[in-house]
Amino acid sequence: MRRAIGITLGLLVFFASVAMAQQTTPPSGAQPRWGKMVPHRMGGGVIDMRLLRQLNLTEQQHQQIRTIMQNYAASTKPQRDELRQLFEQRRTNGSLTADQQARVEQLRAALDASAQQMRADILNVLTPEQRTQFEQLEQQAKAKREEWRKKRSNAPSN
């Protein structure tokens, strides 16, 4: 259930950022606005767009990444739509059949594989120096998340 919610929320953030990027035309010389997380959940296959913003990407790199994201969104739309329908059925009926649950797992695996490929494609747009910097930023962000989780789990509940 938590994974399903995570996938759904990640997808919403992803498409909101894609829509915002398409609607917003930055003034010449300004950096375009990027969303926060891409595409569907924390963990494997996700690119934190806030980290990419720190890499001083060229306009060409921005456009290449935008194209990769749009292609990913278009190519995974049927799977995401089917998954959304299955989640709606589960919400309505309270559960899924064994076949439907197996299909959910297949769709998740396909989306994870697509996300991994999108991540690899985006990282290939970066220069070796940018890739190294990005990996360092990811490690720092991961350490901050772990620290936050520890603080949160140790905090007294009301």
UniProtKB/TrEMBL annotation:
It holds the Pfam family LTXXQ. One of its GO terms (molecular function) is unfolded protein binding. Keywords: Periplasm, Signal. It is found in: Periplasm. GO terms for cellular component: outer membrane-bounded periplasmic space. Gene3D superfamilies: 1.20.120.1490. Residues 1-21 form the signal peptide. InterPro entries: Cpx_auxiliary_protein, LTXXQ. Its main location: periplasm. The keyword Iron does not apply. Residues 137-158 are annotated as: Disordered. Belongs to the CpxP/Spy family. This is P pilus assembly/Cpx signaling pathway, periplasmic inhibitor/zinc-resistance associated protein.
